[in-house]
Write a structure and sequence with these properties.
Helix content is about 75%, strand content about 0%. The chain is mainly alpha-helical and about 400 residues long.
Length: about 400
């Protein structure tokens, strides 16, 4: 009986693991596939936990995550729309948290972390080729999406900003592993992938993604000085080759810090409405998931477009769950950086050390773009955030486990 339970638990673990691998590959391709895979991973993970009579895994961010979950649940009962908030909590917030724990507990070895990264790299390579192909042909060969932007690439994603967010989150792992001493045999392939993804990032003409990449590159350069030199060299190359770019890209680079175009103006109008919404109930918010439901009450009269997201994830979170909800979410990020930086400062530079560094940089870049976009509220990019956070927390757990095993063997 015990042997049978062990086999079932092992089978469930493998199903969850391969679901995560598949999510890493299909994340830029199909929202339907990755949502089905996420539910599969969660269900089989829970079955394994019941069989093995195990509780929720201990991670460095558990306290903050449970506080955030509790505040979101409380927001249901104070919401301006009970139905919407209930659906948002069970259909999104709770699912995302469960997905995070599946990742943090299932990627429990260096081998598994390596595997999911290699799959992510293969997927991003295919996506990069699609982006270059789209630049020259105005066609996307993965999803065959209709032409929306002629001067920007977006590959299989619905918008260039979404593609840019994906690239800015994956690139830190490619760059960081280039400096891992034992990766020499694969350095040529990684360098090629880094160049491909960087070109696509530039061609997205997404300033939010550019800021995200700049933040992550500068963060990595604190520990890998050579990357800092490369970063400044890249800026010089971009400036020197600017005359050869298409007019739209040239204009966006020339007005890098000027936000007076149509998208910038529209965002300011939305942010003003979001701020009014936040000030209406600053402590507890108007209710989880109800930003769009309440938008017209706070927007300027005769707003010409449809009901949008806030295009600032922090402002939307504050509007919906108040200061307490935003503080709880930020504490998750804060704890991750606290324990991650502590590892960077005290541990030996092993493979997992580089993964921790890349994870921190990826989350930092993602958080930068959250300030000007809807990334966390998108199904695929929201899942990307929890995937990267879970990957980083997994690496921290394995680092601690290896350190304990090293002490026992001494």
């Amino acid at each position: 009986m015990i042997l049978k339970r062990t086999r079932i638990a092992g089978f469930c673990d493998r199903v969850s693991l391969f679901s995560l691998y598949a999510i890493a590959f299909f994340l830029p391709i199909s929202k339907g596939i990755i949502e089905s895979l996420a539910i599969t991973a969660i269900v089989f993970y829970l079955v394994r936990k019941v069989i093995q009579k195990e509780g929720i895994p201990k991670t460095c961010v558990n306290a903050a995550i449970f506080m955030y979950l509790l505040i979101c649940m409380f927001s249901i009962f104070t919401s301006s729309n009970l139905k919407i908030s209930t659906r948002a909590f069970f259909g999104k917030t709770l699912e995302n948290i469960a997905f995070f724990f599946v990742i943090a507990d299932t990627l429990n070895s260096q081998k598994r972390i390596k595997n999911i990264l290699y799959i992510l790299f293969v997927s991003s390579f295919v996506l990069g080729i699609d982006g270059i192909y789209q630049h020259f042909t105005y066609k996307d060969f993965i999803r065959h999406r209709p032409i929306i932007f002629k001067d920007r690439v977006y590959a299989s994603f619905p918008t260039p900003n979404s593609f840019g967010c994906y690239l800015a989150t994956v690139i830190p792992f490619v760059f960081t592993l280039l400096f891992y001493p034992q990766i020499k045999r694969k350095s040529f392939a990684l360098a090629g992938l880094a160049i491909l993804l960087l070109i696509c990032l530039i061609l997205t003409v997404s300033r939010g993604a550019w800021f995200a990449f700049a933040a992550s590159a500068l963060f990595i350069s604190i520990w890998i000085r050579a990357l800092g030199l490369f970063f400044w060299a890249l800026i010089g190359i971009i400036i020197a080759t600017q005359p050869f770019y298409n007019p739209f890209l040239k204009e966006r680079l020339g007005k890098f810090f000027i936000f007076m175009d149509h998208s910038g103006t529209d965002r300011r109008i939305i942010w003003q409405a979001a701020w009014k919404m936040f000030m209406a109930r600053p402590w507890i918010g108007i209710g989880l998931g109800t930003f769009m439901f309440n938008f017209k009450r706070f927007a300027v009269e005769n707003y010409p477009y449809g009901v949008p997201y806030a295009h600032n994830c922090y402002l939307q979170m504050a509007s919906e769950t108040g200061i307490v909800g935003l503080a709880a979410f930020l504490s998750i990020i804060g704890l991750f950086f606290y324990f991650g930086i502590r590892v960077l400062n005290t541990k030996e530079k092993t493979f997992l050390w580089y993964i921790v560094l890349a994870s921190l940089a990826a989350i930092l870049g993602y958080c930068m773009q959250m300030g000007v976009d809807t990334t966390l509220y998108s199904l695929d990019l929201g899942m990307l955030f929890w995937l990267m956070l879970g990957l980083g927390v997994s690496a921290l757990k394995v680092v601690d486990l290896q350190a304990q095993e090293g002490k026992l063997s001494v």
